[in-house]
Amino acid sequence: MLYVLLAATCSVLVSVLLKVARKRGIDTAQAITWNYLSASVLCFFLLTPPLASLQHADAPWVPLLALAVILPSLFLVLAASVRAAGIVRTDIAQRLSLLLSLAAAFLFFGEQTVPLKLAGLALGLLAVVGILIRPQGQQASTPDGQRMWPALLTVWVGFALVDVLLKRIAAAGTPFAASLQVSFVLAFVGMVVWQGLRVVQGKTQLSARNLLAGLLLGLINFGNIIFYVMAHRALPGQPSVIFASMNIGVVVLGTLVGVIGFGEKLSWLNRAAIGLAIVSIGLIAMAPKA
């Protein structure tokens, strides 16, 4: 389970980096741009994506292009959510996106409903509501406070949409590594064009600090992916255990880091919602395959 712990740690570290970026004078948009350069190079050398699989006429280019646009856009929203809502709520919203992915599997992929999954879905939705409620005494009148709900809901829906697109791409016969490689490269190209426009318009200046922060962000971001893949390879017969351990691990670690490391406040309702989130993930993981 070491790989699962490393994957969960990398996932939470991404949120930590996004949390401290502004205070360290880092342009988040630039860092996210260089993140895709780092992730693309690591994906190419560590996962050796079979890019020849995309040369046939039925290659799923529409969902791949959609993924290339959504991934960096969602990363920007993730950064805004970490600043506005904190690491705890953002990481849990990201992990509970599996509820929408599950609903999409029932509606669009013909997956059969299973009582345990339905119970997990119901508890998870309650957890989402409980996590979104800000403790009394915290001001929502600040610009960041006002952006909390939209940012969290976008993270929740956005990561589910990414999962659905990946399922569509996999259903077309495209290997996971190839889809990642193409999406990362296209996302990098699009972000470079945008940063170029920002520089021309005088909205930002390229700097070594942003480059280094972005390369580190990409290393950690890809670490989350590669360690998760390695966990599945190490325990090929236990995908549900890996799934549950990863998601629950991120929820627990994110909560500890947010509360202890950054002093984020949680009400009794928020804490109960975190417990519901963990139970929800466990039920979904334990549900038998339809």
Automatic annotation (TrEMBL):
InterPro entries: EamA_dom
Pfam families the record matches: EamA
Keyword field: Membrane, Transmembrane, Transmembrane helix
Entry superkingdom: Bacteria
Organism: Uliginosibacterium silvisoli
Protein name as annotated: EamA family transporter
Domain EamA: 2-132
Transmembrane region(s): 34-52, 64-86, 92-109, 116-133, 148-166, 178-197, 209-229, 241-262, 268-287
